[in-house]
Amino acid sequence: MTYSGVVTVGGPADVHELPDLMISKVAVGPMNNNAYLLRCRATDEQLLIDAAADPQTLLSLIGESGIASVVTTHRHQDHWNALREVVDATGARTVAGRYDAEGIPVPTDVQIEDGDTVRVGRVELTARHLVGHTPGSIALVYDDPQGHPHVFTGDCLFPGGVGNTWKDPEAFESLINDVETKLFDRLPDETWVYPGHGDDTTLGAERPHLAAWRERGW
């Protein structure tokens, strides 16, 4: 079936089948958090992005194969409140941005910075440090060698705008600058965006609105 990226809490995962990577998306919890399970098709190694809200749903998605690692995109509790249970059940190593690790109560095994590589099997993802929603938010970019890029943006980029900066002009300026220079300026319109909540989008769908976002200040 064609992947849409539209999921509902309590509903089934939507699976994006790429040549080298399988991406399964589920929605969990009262804040409609998205969690993403990545599986390398060559090795079957798995990685989870954001252990949010509902450990049983996430562990069911992971299955008996387990996961090698869990990446937490940022320090906000709704993105890690199932992390302890998932790590205890799977033994996975924990990964987070260096400047948000101190705000995550489960110890971070691997602290990453802008440009660092995160691997799942033979697949490589590149971390992009985006400052503003939190000090250490990390997006992960998969540049599919057989297709277009894919980016997991946490709460830094959504359909219709960047993440919440709580009416702080400096935080907003930092976030929109980082999103523009590290994502929009480097990646093509076809880049698929997987946000931390809600539906997916593409950079091409959002690019025409960057100036309007700057003008409104959020």
UniProtKB/TrEMBL annotation:
Keywords assigned by UniProt? Answer: Hydrolase
Record-linked Gene3D superfamilies: Ribonuclease Z/Hydroxyacylglutathione hydrolase-like
Entry protein name: MBL fold metallo-hydrolase
InterPro entries membership: MBL_Glyoxalase_II, Metallo-B-lactamas, RibonucZ/Hydroxyglut_hydro
Which SMART domains does the record match to this protein? Answer: Lactamase_B
Q: Which organism is it from?
A: Streptomyces botrytidirepellens
Molecular function (GO) terms for this protein are: hydrolase activity
Residue span, Metallo-beta-lactamase domain: 32-197
